[in-house]
Amino acid sequence: SSADSVALALQRVFYNLQHSKKSVGTKALTKSFGWDALDAFTQHDVQELDRVLCDNLEEKMKGTIVDGEVPRLFRGKLQNFVKCINVDFSSVREEEFYDLSLNVKGCKNIEESLMKYVEVEKLDGENKYMADGHGLQ
């Protein structure tokens, strides 16, 4: 039904934000997520909202001409690369993501935060890497 449609509820919120001179309510959008009154007062982080929204939109788009557009637009891929110092072992693992958890504290801008995200990290102490055939490294 239209009352359960996340896409329609989201479209209405954005339309009203653009055209209304009054504050815009989000009750219909909240209800479309399947959340009840109690859920509305539970703190949800933006990543959880994004996941619920994208999952719902992907499900609604299945079998339509826009099937697959949500991941095409919003999914990224990254590679985790590990190279051991003491043994001849390296590993590359690819993973998909819809969001990144960036540290912003102490960063002047998003570029600096992204540079910190991809900087080399030494895995030692309790953070050692289990290298196949070589144990903890």
UniProtKB/TrEMBL annotation:
Record-linked Gene3D superfamilies: Cysteine proteinases
GO MF annotation, one: cysteine-type deubiquitinase activity
Q: Origin, by domain of life?
A: Eukaryota
Annotated membrane-spanning segments are none
The alphabetized list of GO BP terms reads: protein deubiquitination; regulation of protein stability
**Sequence ranges assigned to domain Peptidase C19 ubiquitin carboxyl-terminal hydrolase in this UniProt record:** 6-88
Cellular component aspect of the GO annotation: cytosol; nucleus
The name on file for this protein is Peptidase C19 ubiquitin carboxyl-terminal hydrolase domain-containing protein
* Organism listed in the record: Hanusia phi
Taxonomic lineage from the root: Eukaryota, Cryptophyceae, Pyrenomonadales, Geminigeraceae, Hanusia
